[in-house]
Amino acid sequence: MTRRTLTISISACAVTVFGLLMGFPSVEAQGGKAAGGENPARAVQPAQGEYKLKIPFGLEDSAVVIPADNPLTNEKVELGRLLFFDKRLSRNSTIACASCHMAQFAFTDGRKVSTGIHGLKGDRSAPASINRVFSTVQFWDGRAATLEEQSIGPFTNPVEHGFANYDEMIAKMKKIAGYRKLFQQVFGTEVTIDGVGKAIASFQRTILSGNSPADRFDQGQEENAISTAAQNGLILFREKARCARCHSGFNITDEKFHNLGIGWDDNTVDLGRYMVTKNPEELGAFKTPTLREIARSAPYMHDGRFKTLEEVVNFYNKGGVKNPHQDNLIIPLELTEQEKHDLVEFLHTLSGEGWQHVKAPTSFPK
Cα separations (Å) of 252 from 154, 247, 280, 286? Predict the structure, then answer.
């Protein structure tokens, strides 16, 4: 398994090339002629620069998931960045993808549940957009089979971006000459929902987290990378606390779905994965999130009920909440106060590098 020690960045020269392709000195799109209704399936892809995805230390470059029909290019990633931050991609121009996925909160929003158009509240906490390049199914319930599908799902959610359908959204985007020009340059087509999904997914695949103190201690053999308490916490994580039963592998997730008992004690059960598969064994089950950047992504659980990592550890220590569908991996742990402290100390060492390049655009296509 190959690992890299480099962090990702969109190089200055890549941004310059993109601006030159547009015919303007800035990477931010400006005016252009309307595209001519080309069939996306028959469009000739313009020549573009390959985006060099650099994997931080501790992650595995052999595990990336990049579809053959959506290779990473500098121009597509930059278009995805614009779309990700543009509030005009909501019905009333008040909500962007970045409204619920902010860098300072590990690309969550720091709220119990997300807020969409008109101040409407969702039912679930915003999942972190960190290290999505290593994942296939997306969302807490795994209803999106690909990152491309996930990238467009919120646009037609009535409490998120609020469009009645994708046709309404694309019609709005086609009124923006700058986006018409960019889609021609990147995809060789008019503005399409397929292109929107591919561009945003490409951008999201560049948001990584690795080379954390935990990586440097565990994989890099740097003895002083983490404290003695955190070292004890790592042992607990793998053994007595049983965390690694689900939070496993280099991305610290098994990518599977588990019922912990959330909501079964206060009559607020969310059926979760069951609503996708209709499999009774997955009733109340939710996807195991990565623990990378976990110290920055509070509140926790799919409904955001826990404000701190200490609360999360206490929940697991009690064995979750018993219910007929609870995963048999969840049992009381009998951790001491010191052990719980050390476990939290370890979790704080999982913050790393690979996302710091993400900045909001200074201007958007006109």
Answer: 26, 4, 26, 15
Phi, psi angle pair for 103, to nearest 5°? -55, -40
Structure tokens at 307: 């404000």
Boundaries of every domain in the chain: 12-204, 213-350
pTM for the predicted model, two decimal places: 0.86
**53-65: per-residue pLDDT in tens?**
999 999 999 999 9
Q: Is 210 helix (H, G, I), strand (E, B) or coil?
A: strand
Q: Among 3.30.70.1350, 1.10.10.410, 1.10.760.10, 3.40.1180.10, what is the CATH number of 213-350?
A: 1.10.760.10
Report the length, in residues, of the chain.
366
The alpha helices in the chain, defined as continuous H runs, are 12-22, 74-85, 97-100, 147-152, 166-174, 177-187, 193-204, 213-218, 228-238, 274-277, 309-317, 337-347
- The CATH number given to 12-204 is 1.10.760.10
